[in-house]
Specification:
Elements lengths: L11 E3 L1 H11 L11 H7 L3 E2 L3 H9 L6 H9 L4 E5 L5 E5 L3 H11 L5 H7 L3 H14 L7 H8 L5 H8 L6 H6 L4 E6 L2 E5 L1 H5 L7 H16 L4 H8 L4 H9 L4 E6 L2 E6 L3 H6 L6 E4 L4 H4 L13 H4 L9 E4 L2 E11 L2 E8 L5 H17 L4 E6 L1
Parallel strand pairs: 1-7, 12-13
Antiparallel strand pairs: 2-4, 3-4, 5-6, 7-8, 9-10, 10-11, 11-12
């Protein structure tokens, strides 16, 4: 077989219906996993995006038979999940046992501290490296607020460096996290705290950065494949060349395929499964910033151009979406009132009676995940 555009040989010609069904399975969106597999499921999809924690908890809840309290317990009591800055420089929850894997790859292939960023932060690279190391030494298994870190690490440093430490959106804390020296601890009142991952988790292991990047790319293709090197680089949040490095590490394990005439790659070990994956019959209510929507360089394979602005909104906000057979069929919002989950759905086209009934069932499941008694659904 050949790619119809490039005439390059491919091992299979796949339909988008097959691909959507395969990704839904890889994302645990066809049936929820048992609660005991909560951390494993988060690892299977490469983490959940957590700059909005309520969204992250629901991202887990739509995939695992659990309540949001179980996600919080996994973070702060059992410590099977950990929260830190990872892919795309954004906050994620990942399995604690996988944190050394992610930070090993991030330390070598993460977001670069460009000259423009350093100039904007008004800090030199040597000063940044010094502060990163100092913060890493200051952190332990007990939570420290940002103010406490500034007081401890900023002592004796210039006002300019201390101002850089106070900057929002992670600032100099993100480079510390990429080195595996920082993650979030339990909040203290309204203040977030930070801990040293090795001390907080009680274990750590050194991993070769190239081997780590290859393993992450393997897991990525297991959930988001078929995909391109550019898709992976966009998901990872680094320069385009990181896709070349990751794909080189997977050499011999990849199968080139054509999806609707578009060339992509997937794990050769998944090729037979994707051909036999049953398509259709799936509806899901995905929360904001869901990984399924965030996994590729474009979203034209899951949402029509006319509706893209309703999904990818201003300031990088990704809407909660109604997912029908792997494609976005609308958006939804929710609020809780007097023990009831109120769900408002704005479909992109008229929904069938069966689809509306499925939406109501999903909403009821979400209400239980949130610890609410029932759900009410309004379809615009």
């Amino acid at each position: 077989m050949f790619d119809v555009k490039t005439r390059a040989p491919v091992e299979a010609e796949l339909t988008w219906a097959q691909v959507h069904a395969f990704r839904l399975q890889g994302h645990h969106l066809l049936s929820r996993a048992p609660k005991k597999d909560l951390a494993r499921v988060v690892g299977d999809i490469g983490g959940v995006q957590a700059q909005v924690m309520s969204a992250a908890e629901l991202q887990v809840g739509v995939r695992v038979d659990c309540r949001v309290d179980d996600v919080r317990d996994a973070l702060w009591k059992r410590k099977t999940l950990v929260k830190t800055w990872l892919m795309r420089g954004t906050l994620h929850l990942v399995p604690s046992k996988d944190l050394p894997l992610f930070t090993a790859a991030m330390s070598a292939y993460g977001t670069r501290n460009t000259n423009a960023w350093l100039k904007w932060m008004q800090i030199t690279e040597p000063e940044l490296n010094d502060v990163v190391a100092a913060i890493g030494r200051a952190l332990d298994g007990q939570g420290h607020t940002r103010e406490e870190l500034i007081a401890k690490v900023g002592k004796g440093r210039s006002d300019r460096v201390q101002a850089a430490m106070k900057s929002g959106w992670g600032g100099v804390l993100k480079p510390v996290a990429r080195q595996g020296l920082l993650c979030f601890g339990p909040s203290r009142g309204q203040s977030v705290t930070f801990v040293g991952p090795e001390q907080w988790l009680g274990t750590w292991r050194a991993i070769d950065p190239d081997a780590a990047l290859t393993e992450i790319a393997r897991r990525y293709l297991g959930a988001y494949g078929p995909a391109t090197k550019s898709d992976f680089a966009r998901w990872w949040g680094s320069w385009a060349g990181v896709g070349n490095t990751a794909w080189a590490g997977l050499a011999g394990d990849l199968a080139p395929v054509s999806v609707g005439g578009q060339r992509a790659d997937m794990l050769a070990s998944d090729l037979e499964r994707i051909k036999k994956q049953p398509a259709g019959g799936s509806l899901q209510l995905l929360p904001p910033f869901d990984p399924y929507v965030m996994g590729h360089s474009s979203r034209d394979h899951i949402v029509e151009a006319a509706n893209l602005s309703k999904v990818s909104r201003t300031a990088g906000w990704i809407s909660a979406v109604v997912l029908l057979d792997g494609r976005v069929a609308g958006t939804w919002r929710h609020q809780a009132a007097r023990g009831t989950l109120l769900v408002s759905v704005e479909p992109f086209q008229r929904l069938t009676a069966k689809t509306v009934a499925d939406v109501r069932r999903r909403a009821q499941t979400l209400s239980e995940t949130l610890g609410l008694a029932r759900a009410e659904v309004k379809v615009a």
